[in-house]
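Input chain follows. Return structure tokens only.
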Amino acid sequence: MHPEVLRVTHDIATRSRTLRNQYRRDIEKMASQPVHRSQLSCGNLAHGVAACGEEDKSVIKMMDSANVGIVTAYNDMLSAHAPYAGYPDQIKAALKKMGCTAQVAGGVPAMCDGVTQGQPGMELSLFSRDVIAQATAVSLSHQMFDAVLMLGICDKIVPGLLMGALQFGHLPALFIPAGPMTSGLSNKEKVRVRQLYAEGKVDRAALLEAEMASYHGQGTCTFYGTANSNQMVLEAMGLQLPGSAFVNPYTPLRDALTNAAAEHVAKIARNGRLSLPLAEVVDERSFVNGMVALLASGGSTNLCIHLIAIARAAGLVLNWSDFDALSKVVPLLTRIYPNGSADINHFQAAGGTGLLFSELIQAGLMHGDARVCFGESLEAASLEPCLHEGVLQWRSAPTQSLDPEVIRPAHDPFAPEGGIRLLQGNLGRSLIKSSAVSPEHLKIEAQAVVISHQDELKSLFDRGELNKDCVIVARFQGPCANGMPELHKLMPILGVLQDRGHAVALVTDGRLSGASGKVPAAIHVTPEAATGGAIGRIQDGDVISLDVASGQLSLSVDEALLASRAAVDQPTEEHTVGRGLFVLNREAVTDAECGGCSLFGPPTLDPTPVQETTRAVAYEHCAS
């Protein structure tokens, strides 16, 4: 193992000791004193099976076979979740052949950032993750189940489902993906049309035609945004069948994988011989594996918030320094849009997760011995699925890339470092996704142009006030201010300015996520403006320096002068489009580096020891 990967893993375990021990005690109590359907009163159990057919009633009340709870994010408006419509019936049929049963335990909301992008509804997006976690817990609170299947893919849905499931970590759990849509109009062409529209060179009809040619069918979006980053991370953490993430919907292989997931979760159910509770799979090694896979693939910055919140639900504490330390030693092995021209289907064809994980394990960058839901270890499960005469089989993943423009070996990467870096300075701490930014744009010093709402940028652009080198500062976009929306509405304009030859960047306490592209963007700035952060005291004309190589984000203003500036009033809070229901979330939410989460307060940390050369050895001893 690479010593820095071991160091980060050890630090996570050390600082999390108190919280992790409490989590394990809670899970062990649930496992040893379960409220199980066998202990329910006759009235309780009768309510629990009343909707079932007579055959299922007979099986469930016998107590000796697995009853699997399904938590689903199905709705037919979202392309990624529409394929889930028939999954419950398919799962039930597969389990029936094994003498087992399944019930839909509950549904969770699934909103699409693509639909709400630049709209007021985006301010509900981050908090929807916490709602999903709570809804998952409500779904499982009936205690009727021996295992759980999670049906969810996109941005906040997977993190919320996993956060909720971890509260029932005594139960085995497995995610079932639905796969990406087939390739349509290239992502690069789509962005070109967006920029032309921003310049007024094409009309809305042309823009809509391009968008619909790109987002054209059922399945996840094909670019490497948060949805597909979720799938990459789930496989790296061992929480869904290997090689299953990026198989297209409504194909024989997709159907076979869904059946296999149902069968497998019944085998590891808590009342079976091979019981494998979720809490036994998810530990500090699995989170490091998830972070490494994210970095090596140039994935979404949203996961730098979500993984922290998920870890907290498992009694573990991650921070941005962990991501930064790993990024410095994890090479960039893939080029998937926006980090290249390929889409996720090209990645799958080039070798997929099996090839990528094998490269990282062999390079000592992933814990190959980490537990997984579907086998002995991640290394042993670096496989890919295939059909042979209609029967699902597993074979070794490719050992060499089938397209070196999409996946490279660890000894010959696209870049020596991963795609996400920490920036620090007198503005606080922030993250930048550097993997899609050309090297000449990774350092900029320019005057600030300050906005407090993303609509202000279009007005400035239309008036010709942005034809210069500048750093756009979008403040009051953090979790406490307005729920931390994504700000992709800004990017076509900034892309136009960059193409005109101007040095431009974005600094914000808001989000951008996996679609972050060629414009350097320091995002998630913490402390945010709404809690008194220095970003709220920046004025037009102040000089801001951003340098990825040195990890610096600084404001060239005397500290005393900066401190003397009066706080700027936050824009009036709107309560339309349901935002008024999330007032308590905004009051309780932690900062971005603590996961932007309204469910847990700031963590209690154990002291992290001073770095020493024996730390890697100490961790290996502790892990063994």
